[in-house]
Specification:
The protein contains seven helices and two strands. The chain has a two-stranded antiparallel sheet with strand order 1-2. It has about 170 residues and is mainly α.
């Protein structure tokens, strides 16, 4: 699998659960998001949202979040904005019967705050007169969608407040 998602093999997915049972198939879905064509990637992201992101969260949710952050930060992933939106959905979700799962999932999302801040920042456009626009250039619709989704997620992280999570320490100005 290379370096992207390489650490997935260190997670005991078969011991974790999602909305429909064993999370053993989560690594394959994450791989489809990372390397699939557009329809495959879209379907995989939708599956993952149903499995781990819709209320309630599950024990597999917190294990999946670091890989979602990795995908959001990888330029070759087709729907990075969708991945960021899934992270926001996870941050808003909870599980009243398992508050520890909720807190772990929310902590995992909050741990990626620096990545969200980096993705939300509008990069400088390269000054190359007459050069064609590269797919990952700062002014493409995909790049704009990533910045917008990252900014929304960053705001959600900063104002996050739920019964399962302790109040964050005050941010320094």
């Amino acid at each position: 699998m290379g370096t992207v998602l390489g650490a997935m093999r260190n997670v005991r997915w078969h011991e974790l659960q999602h909305a429909y049972g064993s999370a053993s198939q989560v690594p394959g879905v994450l791989s489809r998001i990372a390397w699939g064509d557009a329809p495959t990637s879209d379907e995989a992201l939708s599956d993952l949202e149903r499995w781990i992101g819709t209320p309630p969260v599950f024990d597999s949710t917190a294990a999946t979040v670091p890989f979602l952050w990795e995908l959001a930060a990888t330029d070759t992933v087709r729907d990075r904005a969708g991945v960021l939106d899934l992270l926001a959905t996870i941050l808003a979700a909870g599980n009243a019967e398992h508050p520890a799962w909720t807190r772990a999932a929310h902590d995992a999302v909050a741990a990626g705050r620096a990545t969200a801040a980096r993705l939300a920042a509008a990069p400088e456009a390269p000054e190359v007169p007459g050069a064609p626009e590269a797919p990952g250039s700062p002014d493409t619709p995909g790049a704009q969608a990533v910045r917008t989704a990252a900014a929304r997620l960053l705001a959600a992280i900063d104002r996050h407040d739920c019964p399962a999570c302790p109040a964050p320490p005050p941010r320094e100005a």
